[in-house]
Amino acid sequence: MTRYTRKIALLAAFSLVALLAVGAATASACGGPGGGKGGDGVSASALVTAAAKQLSVTRAKLKTAIVDSANAYIDSEVTAGDVDESDVADLKDQVGDDLACAIATSRTKTVASKLGITVAALNEGFSAARKALIEAKIDKALKNGDIDADQADEAKADLDDASLPGYKTVGRGGGFDLGSSTGGSSEKQSQQQPRRAFHG
């Protein structure tokens, strides 16, 4: 592989990593394509681990805040009439088992509140975590001989100039539209158009 070809491959790979390896399963949400992993096998779990470090909290505390927020959102959707009571247990089980689903379903403001920090701080922590994961990918590629030192430096320089998402990869930090994704038996769900996807 020529230097030029390898550079093109590198740029393509890290463009994909920037979009997917940082928890893009949150965009596909519960039960959607991608499951609990983003591109190249990087999971939402890895993102939460990295974010906990950036936020100086334990991973357990961050995960609990995310799952609790997601569960609260599920309850609010039941109250609003957008989710059947019969679907709640399955939804909460999925949120508990799949961090990508939990992030997608949770609300940014609620997660920040449960951690006792601002929304800005939460977003900054997750953005820094995304950057750290991508930098680790670059370092691994360099170590494996897939790129040389100059290419690694160039990739990191491009990363420094990039604007990475915060807690959410899509939208303004609201919850996922559970009513349009559960596949429940409610006649209301089957007849209505999706009320919202990601929203503030």
Could you walk me through the main structural features you see in this protein, from its secondary elements to its overall organization?
The structure is a single chain. With 200 residues, the chain is mainly alpha-helical. It has one domain. It contains 10 helices and no strands. The longest helix has 25 residues, at 119-143. It is elongated. It starts with a helix and ends in a 9-residue tail after the last helix. Mean pLDDT is 75; it is low at 15-28 and 175-200.
Summarize this structure briefly:
By secondary structure, the protein is mainly alpha-helical. The protein contains ten helices and no strands. α3 (44-55) packs across α8, α4 packs antiparallel against α5 (85-97) and α4 packs across α6 (99-105).
